[in-house]
Design brief:
With 531 residues, the protein is α/β, with parallel strands linked by helices. Helices cover 39% and strands 15% of the residues.
Length: 531
């Protein structure tokens, strides 16, 4: 590698000064070695990342600590849309000497140039670090080198370095590069992000997990989605027993299924949390949920997020359904910061008319008060006969939504299915293959009924439109704020500070924490029945 002194990490470094291979070759001809450089690529919308860089960023220092041969390799930060020449070099296809636009900015790129550079025969070697965009921006902003995310970044850097250089420190041959369309990465990913839908209930045992199962099965039946396009996760739960939706996902080949997420309200959890004994505060718990959903959403088209209980469940620990919906939204970058569009909520309601609508309104208000959109409702477990029959309730409730809630929709009315009720969502005691098959047969029956009564394409479209509208509105608001700030007196800052939360962010008690086993044992001894 190059023995020349490493330049300072500087966002103002001209692209021609830091990336011209011929210049490298002249300066390092005596060394007769391959040359390497590492670049942080960023856009004007996340310029703060470059502004926070020290002369030697932590991620560079830690890479050098693992690979001493890199102690003198060059590094620089480059604004992709800073000027036309930089733009062309960064987004052009690698087959014509460009870097190939990364999926999203900011991004880290390794560059290598053979010791004898020839524009035709010895092109630059380029490897992108597969950790970029909102995740990288958030990580570099916080600078917490002890976090799991930081270790993940370093692992991806190691992988990129290994793809570029062999065990002897020589550049590997460059694989053939496919032709790609030139583009500039901006504040959205190159592939459309997965549509996220949060399923909430107006009470416990209203059938949220069954509705999740119905959505997944019905989406598969449309023929527009493969099992690999779909994902299911329950970020927070009170029940760790096997659920029918888990067996259904396995049965249908939906591998992206996480029935027990990172937040578990186990026996004794609440009181130990309040005492600071669990070792994690509200923000950390929500961050865990956020990362779990983000990881699951990669490469998917639709992610179904299953809520827990009624909307306020978990509020005592700051992890209620509204907080989880906020934390698990689609990330987007705007005004030099990473934000999230809250996951649109689909409320699952009860049978009836007046009570069903009243319950919908009070529970929808809980989310709307936190600026979380509610797209509408599915009403579950309706009778087929009598005054409160499915047809009678459907007619009255649709009339109500048409008159008084035109921005929301009653997406469907599901009849009571006795075979599913008998199977129950909890199948922990189903040990025999025949019994398991009976439960899955009941699940298939439910999906068929679900398809008859619910337009799943309409639900996905509504969630997608609401998310896009939220991002547009935030962008418009930011533009308006920027224009307003130009008129403010010097020194006055608009919109500074962190958004406050109404929930406690309790820290651990002087670093002391108890294990789950210890908390549950003490809670059981004290007579606790649940979390």
């Amino acid at each position: 590698m190059s023995d020349e002194a490493s330049p300072k990490m500087n966002r103002a470094v001209p692209i021609t000064d830091v990336t011209n291979p011929r210049r490298w070759n002249v300066q390092n001809s005596a060394a007769n070695r391959d040359k390497m450089m590492i670049l942080l690529l960023y856009g004007s919308w996340n310029v703060r990342i470059a502004a926070t860089m020290s002369e030697e960023p932590k991620w560079v220092s830690m890479m050098k600590a693992v690979h001493p041969e890199l102690k003198n390799f060059a590094s620089a930060a480059v604004q992709v849309d800073g000027d036309e020449e930089t733009y062309e070099l960064c987004v052009n296809d690698q087959s014509v000497g460009g870097y190939g636009a990364p999926p999203e900015l900011p991004a880290i790129v390794f560059l290598g140039v053979p010791s004898v550079y020839d524009a035709e025969e010895n092109k630059m070697r380029i490897e992108h670090v597969q950790y970029y965009g909102a995740k990288l921006e958030s990580l570099l902003s916080k600078g917490d080198e002890l976090s799991i995310a930081w270790k993940t970044l370093l692992n991806h850097m190691e992988e990129a370095y290994a793809r570029l250089v062999n065990s002897d420190g020589k550049l590997r041959p460059s694989p053939p590069q496919p032709k790609v369309t030139k583009r500039i990465p901006n504040n959205s990913t190159s592939a459309e992000p997965a549509t996220r839908i949060f399923i909430a209930g107006d009470r416990s045992q209203v059938g949220k997990s069954s509705i999740c199962m119905g959505l997944l099965g019905a989406l598969l039946k449309t023929g527009k989605y493969k099992p690999s396009d779909l994902a299911y996760i329950k970020p927070a739960t009170q029940c760790e027993q096997t659920q029918l939706v888990e067996a259904f996902c396995k049965h249908k080949g939906i591998d992206a299924c996480v029935p027990i997420g990172p937040i578990v309200y186990y026996k004794g959890f609440t009181r130990s949390f309040l005492k600071g004994e669990t070792g994690e505060n509200s923000e950390q718990l929500l961050q865990n949920a956020s990362e779990a959903v983000d990881s699951l959403a990669k490469g998917k088209k639709v992610v179904i997020i299953d809520g827990v209980g009624y909307p306020a469940v978990g509020s005592i620990t700051g992890t209620d359904n509204a907080s989880v919906a906020l934390a698990c939204g689609v990330p987007f970058t705007m005004a030099q910061s990473t934000q999230r569009a809250p996951v649109p909520v689909l409320l699952i309601g009860k049978s009836g008319v007046g009570d069903a609508v009243d319950s919908f309104n009070i529970n929808a208000t809980y989310f709307i008060h936190r600026n979380i959109p509610v797209v509408g409702s599915i009403f579950n477990k309706l009778s087929l006969n009598g005054f409160y029959s499915l047809q009678n309730c459907k007619e009255a409730i649709e009339m109500y939504f048409h008159k008084f809630q035109p921005d929301k929709k009653a997406f469907g009315f599901i009849p009571e299915i006795q075979s599913l009720s008998n199977a129950r969502e909890n199948i922990a005691n189903i040990a025999q293959e025949e019994q398991m098959q009976q439960a899955l047969d009941a699940a298939d029956l439910f999906v068929e009924e679900f398809r008859k009564h619910v337009n799943v394409d309409d639900i996905v479209l509504s969630a997608k439109e609401v998310t896009a509208k939220y991002i547009r509105d935030q962008s418009d608001a930011a533009t308006s704020a920027q224009l307003t700030s130009l008129k403010r007196p010097a020194g006055e800052v608009a919109g500074a500070g962190e958004v406050p939360t109404k929930y406690p962010r309790l820290a651990s008690n002087n670093g002391f924490s108890l294990s789950r086993e210890q908390i549950e044992a003490m809670a059981s001894a004290a007579g606790a029945a649940g979390g």
